[in-house]
Design goal:
Layout: E1 2-8, E2 11-19, E3 23-27, H1 33-40, H2 56-71, E4 76-82, E5 88-98, E6 103-110, H3 119-134, E7 139-145, H4 149-157, E8 161-172, E9 175-185
Parallel strand pairs: 6-7
Antiparallel strand pairs: 1-2, 2-3, 3-4, 4-5, 5-6, 7-9, 8-9
Helix pairs in contact: 1-2
């Protein structure tokens, strides 16, 4: 994969793109709001998420989330596009970067019509490499609802270790849900 990144003091300054075999990952921009809305207004996609938006003015909250993390150097989000035709298919990113503790949190989503093609695993492997190699982080965490079997499977394929379950941790769809805590350490990844 090709990485384009300028870093200063291990902090993200600019992200252009990551190119994989089938995908292009490029920084989420304000002009992507309609693509973000397409995903985050889909009830099937957001079933295991705490956010849902149904118009462009509502989705601006998520656009601000992406840009605030980038501007504060605490995260980076990429729009996932198919390499062959530049069709947007989802988002992957990192947030809550703690440079002093060398860790961050991974999150992702994909339009349902593109599920079960290995796209998230392909994108995530490259974002993981970016975190460990370019940002010099040591730990990547991810929280997954216990009923989200597809995301649990992705965590396992990526080599993440289940470190525990946070019982009745938060509300989603008017019920308390459990969250599984997964983590991947730099030493867990074979280079």
């Amino acid at each position: 994969p090709l990485y384009y990144c300028i870093t200063a003091n291990k902090k993200i300054m600019e992200i252009e793109k990551i190119i994989t075999e089938r995908l292009i990952l490029r920084k989420v921009e304000q002009s992507d709001a309609s693509s973000i809305l397409k995903g985050l207004s889909n009830d099937k996609l957001t079933k295991y998420m705490l956010i849902r938006y149904y118009n462009l003015s509502e989705v601006q909250e998520q656009m601000d989330f992406y840009s605030n993390h980038f501007n504060n150097k605490t995260g980076a989000y990429w729009l996932i596009e198919l390499k062959n035709n530049h069709t947007p298919i989802g988002v992957i990113g990192i947030n809550d970067i703690h440079y002093s503790n060398k860790k961050c949190e991974l999150g992702y989503w994909l339009y349902p019509e593109f599920w079960n093609n290995g796209y998230i695993v392909e994108a995530a492997k490259n974002v993981i490499d970016f975190c460990f190699d370019k940002l010099q982080l040591n730990r990547i965490e991810a929280d997954v609802e216990t009923e989200n079997t597809a995301s649990i499977s992705i965590m396992k394929k990526l080599g993440f270790i289940h470190e525990g379950t946070l019982r009745e941790f938060e509300m989603n769809n008017s019920k308390l849900i459990d969250l599984m805590k997964f983590a991947l350490l730099k030493r867990d990844v074979q280079h």
